[in-house]
Each structure stands twice: as C-alpha cells, then as structure tokens.
Amino acid sequence: MDQSVRDGDSEFPETTRTVADFRADLGRTDLARHLALFYRSQDTQLQVAAAFVDHGLQTGHRCLYLADVNDLDRIETALRAAGVDVDARVAAGDLVLRDAADVYLDTGFDPEGMIETLTEGCEGCVEDGYDGLWVAGENSWCFHTNVSFDHILDFEATFDAVAPELPVTALCQYDLSQFGERSTAKALWTHRQIVYRNAICENPFYVPPEEYRTEDDRHRNARLMLEQAYSLTEARREVDRREQRLNVVNRVLRHNIRNDLNVVRGVLENLRGNEAIDAAERAELDAALGSVDAVVAMAEKARYVQRTIRDTAVERTPLATLIERAVDDVADAYPDGEVSVSEVPDCSVLADQRLDRALFEALANAIVYQHEEPPVVALDVSTPSADVVRIDVRDPGPSIPVAEREAVLGGEETALEHGSGLGLWLVKWFVENAHGTLSFPDTGQSEGHLRIDLQRVG
C-alpha cells in the first residue's frame, strides 16, 4: 500500500468553509449510501465525523462509530462538542461505539463476513424501529492487515454494490497523511460522493461496481477517468454558452423592455389625466400602471443580480451594521412601514458584502405582501448556539405561499412551483453566499415568517 506522507499542509489551499457548512450540506444534499471523508488533521476528522453522527441521530437512525486511530474517550468528547448526549444515546441503543478491528478483523480479513455483519446490523436497526444505520468508520484499520490495498478496495466495491439495497449510509474516513497519492486515487474510484474541505462533493472519478470488477479494470478505469474529464470540459463549455445567451436575454430585459414599458407608462398616465374617464376606468388605469411599475422594478432587480451576484466578498461584518443599513433603506423606500427590531447582540457574522440587501428584500417582502395599515414587521435577532446568529422576520400575514417557498428552497422553478418575483431569490443567493441558510418556519399561525441563520465569528 502506498503510505507516503504529505510534507505539511502547504499543498492544500485554504478554505473558508467550516463544519457548519458541512452540517448545512447534510441537510440539503441527497446523500449517497457510501461516502468517503478525506482529511488532513484529526481535529477536522473528528468534527466532521461527529457532525455526521449527530445528523444521523437527529434523523432517526442508529449510528455506529468504528474507531481505530482515535480512542473512544476522544471520540466521545468530539460527539459531545457536536451536541450529542453520548451517555443517553448509548444507553438507549441509538449510538454504538466499537473498535474497527474487532468488527472487520476479528476472524481475519473476510470481506463476505464483513458485508454480512453490516447487513445484519441494518436489519436489526429496522427491527428496533430506526430508519436505518449510519456508520462512520476510520479506515486506518486496513493498515493492520497483511493484504494489499487493492483487496481492501475490492471490499469497498462490494459494499458499494450492496449499499443501495440496504438502509445504510456509511462514511469511510481516509487520513491523507497515511494514504498516499496512489491509494487516495484508488479510493476515489469506489465512492460516488466525497467529503473534502468541509464540502460534500459529487465525485467525477467514481467507478460503478460493475465497471470496477471487470478483468481489465485498470485500463477501463483509466479510460473512464479520461471520459469524465472530457465530460467536465464539455459541461464547462455548455455553461459558457448558456451564460452568453443569458447575457443577451438580460440585456434585452433590462434595456429594451424597460424602455418600451416607460413608453407604455407615459401613455397610461396621459389617459389617466383625461377628465372624460370615469372612476372605474381610472381604477383600471391605476392597476395597469401598478403592473408596469412592478415589471420595471423586476427588470431593475434582474440587472442588479447580473451585475453583482458574482462579485462577492465574504468577510467578518458587525451584525448591528448590517441590520441598521437594511432598516434605514426600508424606511426610505417604504416610509409608511413600521419595523421593530429586537436587541441586537454585539457580535460579528460571516457576511457577503451585500447581505444588507438580502435583509432589505426580506423586510420589503413582509411590508408589500400584507394587509395591515400601516404595514408592520418585526425583526428578531437571537443566538440559538454559540456559532449561529438567527434573524427572524415576521409580519401579520398572509404567509408566503407554499409554491413560492418550495421554489426558492428547492433552487429551481417548475411549471407548478414558481415564485412571484426576484426578492426572495436575492435573499437566498446573498445568504448562501455568506454560508448561511434561509428557511420558512411553519409555526401553524397565519403569519409571514422568514428565517436567516448566519455564522457567528465573534
């Protein structure tokens, strides 16, 4: 097995992603049954693995941690830091901590026996009322065998083949200081998703089990990697082509349609000033003018999106400054609106440089789409945990339509689920650029309720 050691961390670029981002990925990613974590430090390993276990417990699964390099006391400490009540979970049977060698190597290296053990574990979980089994295993156990790494990978491929048929989600953990370049490259072949630099990534070099098991697998795998590299290049070219087309469409929307609508608006205003029209006709003209203004405003937002969405700079920003700017802008734009703000903690958050625009859009959305006179909005700030700042924007209602919420949270619009404008999309984009999350809590009350969670950085 290739066990060459890295010369420090200089080969690895810095990342702004944190374990909090990984937690967010867990909640919004359709996870593969078989993932691999590649890490550089044991602190990173334990934080990610503990977050993985915590998410599994929170979603109704029994969790099994297979330890090797780390002793059980250190693993329990990491789990408690992630919010897991270890003693209660172990006592209830929700959490099982075992030595990986006892599970995998008790009777020698026996791939079929190992698969059978995991299968029985999954079946036992379901019988006990769990949704399935989550496994986090330190793969350094394989250094205690006298078999080659290729044999270990044969086991990984076999597990990869049966995993989709089982209620299991497994996180294999690879220490990059122990597994060298060749071993890491081979490990990539057997995992459709990987966790690297606190991100869940689709693996372009994944080899399906049926391909991996072919007799000429080495050549077929190499060809597959080349084909995948080609496919990625073609995908990038297609993205460039689509972006070029979108730029043309955006220019037309911004400029041509906006100019034409200004002409229409001028005609409607002239008609409205005609003393010969009656009240009903004047009301119809007012409605038409309102629609024209709404389309012009949307075109302006589309222009703002194209001009700024890529120009992002995430940095430490005082929370009070963001909220003050957003509230002041709302007061200027909607002087009849009343915005109440709770006490703001004296802290900073990780923020996109335009996050105040996201807060502005959230408040504006609450003002525009309610029936109260004058419109009222409450902005409440809290700190549900040491590393999270929560901003809740509430108004008397009506609540944001389900179709609009699902479209924004799902990340794409369909014929059945579409939003009414760009405001909530701006909120989503700028919040996610800041590594935060947007949600719409269902309180069971007839109210508008939008929630933003941001990373606290001091």
TrEMBL record:
Q: Spell out the molecular function terms from Gene Ontology.
A: ATP binding; protein histidine kinase activity
InterPro entries, per the entry = 2C_sensor_his_kinase (IPR050980), HATPase_C_sf (IPR036890), HATPase_dom (IPR003594), His_kinase_dom (IPR005467), MEDS_domain (IPR025847)
Catalyses: ATP + protein L-histidine = ADP + protein N-phospho-L-histidine
Chain ranges of the Histidine kinase domain: 252-458
Please give the start and end residues of each transmembrane region. none
Q: Which Pfam families does the record associate with it?
A: HATPase_c (PF02518), MEDS (PF14417)
**EC id:** 2.7.13.3
First-level EC class = transferase
Keywords, sorted A to Z? ATP-binding, Kinase, Nucleotide-binding, Transferase
- Top-rank taxon of the source lineage equals Archaea
Protein name per its UniProtKB record:
histidine kinase
Q: What is the lineage of its organism?
A: Archaea, Methanobacteriati, Methanobacteriota, Stenosarchaea group, Halobacteria
